[in-house]
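Researcher: Going back to the complex we discussed earlier. I've cleaned up the inputs and rechecked each line, so this should be the final set. Can you rerun the prediction on the complete assembly and write out the structure?
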Amino acid sequence: MKTKYLFPLGAVAVAATLPSVGFAQDEAAVAVDNAFIFNTLLFLIGGFLVFWMAAGFAMLEAGLVRSKNVTMQLTKNMALFAIASIMYWMVGYGIMYPAEWLVEGWLGPFFAFADLGGDPAVDVGYATGSDFFFQLMFCATTASIVSGTLAERIKLWPFLIFVVVLTGFIYPIEASWQWGGGWLAEAGFSDFAGSTLVHAAGGFAALAGAIILGPRLGKFGKDGKVNPMPGSNLALATLGTFVLWLGWFGFNGGSQLALGTEADANAVAIIFANTNMAAAAGAIAALILTQVLYGKVDLTMVLNGALAGLVSITAGPLDPSLFGALWIGAVGGIIVVLTVPMLDKMKIDDVVGAIPVHLIAGFWGTLAVPFYTEGTNFVTQIMGFAAIGGFVFVTSLVVWVIIKSVMGLRPSEEDEIAGLDVSELGMEAYPDFTKG
Amino acid sequence: MKLIIAAIKPFKLEEVREALTSIGVRGMMVTEIKGFGSQSGHTEIYRGAEYAVNFVPKIKLELVVADGMADQVVETIQTTAKTDKIGDGKIFVLDVNSAVRVRTGETNDDAL
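Model: Rerun complete. Updated structure for the full complex:
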């Protein structure tokens, strides 16, 4: 061996022995709880992936509304996320994970401002902050669902006031019944990552809003005529869908809530694969079905189909086989293609198809759980869906009605026709004649 | 002076521009438009609902030339832009009262 290698090799050899020289007596004291670290890591990574879904919703919605309403849609998405973050700290987290129930199993304490504590909660198994962070994102996702349905004819501030109530109270209360260890969890209801708790809940809040708000001007004509209002930017809508798809790996994968063992890591891997499969199957189902029904593939339905597939697998992404994820996701895609026109017939104007994707596919996803998850049954699944759905729908309806009577929900007809961008915000998304 | 307005198929623009500049045309204005003539519309479906698409994308050319050049310009546009299919477009010729070059203030034929 050449002598020039001897010195560096020698240095490495000495360094390699250092840990066992003089440090040995500290090893026991510095034993690291790897499970704690990995669990925390899963929450953090899963959490910022779900955060990224906010960008997905923003782009999807911006792309599916007309250009005169894009700025407003983006503003709603930015604002609702920020509101969710603050409300969840202020009151939501405390209601959802009660230290002490106000009404055991049903209602947690109000305004228990979330406190992440100083030291690592090693006995809990994961950092409190990571759990708070992760769960906050789910709360924000629920609110995002509502903004798509009500686009193009709702004023900004009434909408944001609804978001305050949804993220501070409605969502945390219903979610506490299951994930907070409340009465639904006791009853054996199963919703792994939130087909009902997040998606159907968001869908119900959106449905209540759509009913109270009414459709866009000119959307429904005489004799049941439906007037399409094509989106302004399908490239953004597609990008948004892919972003949501990516974020969903965190949404479902993070819901394993643990990464500290080989079994957990394996579970997260299965969840990622199943999640992807369901999205793919939903997209293909919509692709084929729109071709068959309309003679042409409808990109916006394919996008919705992928999302419906994702929602469908969200209640049970771990237990199905890949084939299971495939057919569950495919049914989600079929549901969307069939229910979008159905809502039109019912004169419910859902601009982006959020109700079919989140509410109806959310029901399907919840219902499909007993096919693969032991210890669950269809009756309990339906009961859980009905309880949460009923609660969210009724409370949302009440809140929408109150806001409508206090401050009104809709812009004037002139303002709606001119577009919310210029009438409410004075800012066009695609300004034409600017100064050079 | 004559104002020539022509609606042509969008993919023909480059060919027409080249043909016109080679016969001495020194300026023109181009706008993207939608329109219909005998090329009728059709129905499309968006998220399960039918709607009529009555307008087809075209390019509108507007150019002002000296009286003497007008006929040649019209003929050049017509022969270059035609594809023998419906929707090739139309050309109109109007009289122009006056013209001014913004930079120098020259008028009429000197402005062209």
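Model: Worth noting: The domain at 2-111 of chain B is CATH 3.30.70.120 (Alpha-Beta Plaits).
Researcher: Good, that matches what I expected from the previous run.
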